[in-house]
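Researcher: Go.
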Amino acid sequence: MLKKSAYRRIILATLALIILLIIYFFPSKEEFIDEKITYIKEVEMPIFLIDKNDYVARTTIVKNKEKTEDIIKEIIDALTIGGEKSSYIPENFKAIIPEKTKLLNFDLKNNLLKLNFSKEILNIEKEYEEKLIESLIYSLTELKDIEKIMIFVEGQQLTKLPHSNKKLPNTLDKSFGINKIYNLDSIKDTSKTTIYYLSKNNDFYYYVPVTEITNDSTEKVEVIINNLKSTPIYHTNLISYLQASANLLNYELLEDSISLSFNNNLLANLDEKEILEEVKYSIGLSLRDTYNIKEVTFNVENEFIETIGL
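Model: Structure:
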């Protein structure tokens, strides 16, 4: 009897050891799935698409690549109607490059990107031809390696818009402007200032840059703050959360950054010294595109609050 009991214990112990070894060396299917989910993280990148109000607007799509050359292809594909990344485009936004347009080749050297498209790109509708250029410039220059672009159609440089025949600069950058508004008394001494407002898509907020072209000689940082403080009556569906009572007291423009000093009304929460995200980035993105800076520092009543990178 004792001998049988000993055998039984040995058998049970052996089976238990085998089960433990199986569990250790061959994890369950659920464990593999959990590990995969933890490892894969979606990374987003900014892109300028057409919103429901026909603005060229800044939103984001999922980025699957890391190398600049691969990201360029992803951006062009997302901007192309019927492209492979169409399913990535947020609701109520749309691509702008005409359907069946192909990016034949491209070259990136010294921060200048040369894009060579197939002739289908010339099928753009007249009302969207300038928006197409804006969308390409602003989407691609979000990449740190790109400052300017040139557009070619089957090897020939695009020197004018296909319908209006408006001449294009030899190289294109953000000085071209976006969603332009003209408020001119004269064609002399003009000034361009790009200001980022907010718009809303269901419960999702996104930024809409507007380039104002005027004869105003006021320093551009002041133009930006003054415009964000006031309601843009010519853009009834655009929003700014900067309070009218938030006064810019002083500023210092450095090589690649700017320091701003406001009164207390810049703060959303006086006790916790908080600035609304929408306020920080409306100001920050506007200053970035106007002055080509990388950082904005916010101070309130000469007290440092925070610095944001752009």
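Model: The chain is about 25% helix and 30% strand.
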